[in-house]
């Protein structure tokens, strides 16, 4: 970087004497120094192991997949737990999604997840995008959205061929599965989970 030891020591918030001890291996680098080095572009893998390049290399990102976005309204809450009927009077928000991220055909419906019956795959606060067209798709083993008398819920559909039954199975063992009969007016399949979006460190 073209800096003297004194200048570099000041840059990472230590003295030249302590810096020299780091450089000669007499002192291990503390995490707060590693973080500062990372912030100024040093490759920590190189710093610790000697492998790779000294500085972080920026990789070009192909942003072409961001083209052809579609806007989908978030229309309500979906229960990953006990069913709950919550539809917003007007869409909570619109989600602009690159079409290339979606595997199933439109139309789509977006819900905000409540409850933890599908944890850890789907957790409260996640946004789930469901396709309402699952023709020609083997839905066995897929996570589906269902409407039942108590509201809307998200469950994994499992065909138990041995007992000739179909179950709506929560992934969290703290919840009980429900028997599903195709054509049952009480429980209707309304979508197949296509994409789950989660925020971290909120």
Instruction: Provide the succession of SSEs.
Output: HHHHEEEEEEEEEE
Counting DSSP H or I runs of 4 or more residues, the number of helices is 4
Enumerate the spans where pLDDT stays under 50 for 5 or more consecutive residues: none
- Taking Cα atoms only, what radius of gyration do you get, to the nearest Å? 26 Å
CATH names the topology of the largest domain as Umud Fragment, subunit A
CATH H level of the largest domain: which superfamily?
A: Umud Fragment, subunit A
Oligomer: single chain
Major sheet summary line: 10 strands, mixed
Proportion in β-strands: 25-35%
> Can you give the helix content as a percent range?
10-25%
Distance between the termini: 36 Å
Q: State the name of the first-level CATH class of the largest domain.
A: Mainly Beta
If you average the pLDDT, what whole number results? 82
Structurally, the number of domains stands at: 2
The structural class is alpha+beta
Shape designation: elongated
Short description, anyone?
With 202 residues, the protein is of the alpha+beta class. It has helices spanning 5-11, 16-23, 31-39, 44-49; strands spanning 69-79, 86-87, 93-98, 108-114, 127-131, 143-148, 151-160, 165-169, 178-180, 188-197.
Structure, explained:
- With 202 residues, the chain is of the alpha+beta class.
- It folds into two domains: 5-49, no CATH class; 64-197, Umud Fragment, subunit A, CATH 2.10.109.10.
- It has four helices and ten strands.
- Strands 1, 2, 3, 4, 5, 6, 7, 8, 9 and 10 form a ten-stranded mixed beta sheet that branches.
- β6 and β7 (151-160) form a beta hairpin.
- α1 packs across α2 (16-23).
- The protein starts with a helix and ends in a 5-residue tail after the last strand.
- The model has no long low-confidence stretch (mean pLDDT 82).
């Amino acid at each position: 970087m073209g800096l003297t030891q004194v200048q570099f020591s000041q840059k990472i918030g230590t003295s030249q004497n302590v810096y020299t001890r780091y450089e000669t291996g007499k002192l291990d680098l503390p995490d707060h120094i590693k973080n500062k080095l990372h912030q100024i572009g040093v490759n920590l893998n190189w710093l610790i192991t000697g492998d790779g390049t000294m500085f972080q290399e920026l990789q070009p990102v192909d942003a072409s997949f961001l083209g052809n976005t579609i806007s989908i309204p978030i229309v309500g809450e979906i229960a990953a737990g006990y069913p709950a009927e919550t539809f917003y009077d007007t869409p909570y928000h619109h989600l602009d999604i690159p079409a290339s991220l979606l595997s199933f055909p439109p139309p789509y419906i977006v819900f905000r997840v409540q409850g933890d019956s599908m944890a850890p795959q789907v957790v409260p606060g996640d946004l789930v995008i469901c396709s309402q067209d699952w023709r020609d798709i083997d839905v066995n083993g897929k996570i589906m959205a269902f409407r039942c008398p108590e509201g809307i819920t998200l469950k994994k559909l499992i065909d138990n061929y041995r007992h000739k039954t179909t179950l709506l199975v929560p992934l969290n063992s703290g919840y009980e599965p429900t028997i599903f009969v195709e054509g049952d007016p009480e429980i209707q399949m309304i979508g197949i989970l296509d994409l789950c979006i989660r925020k971290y460190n909120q």
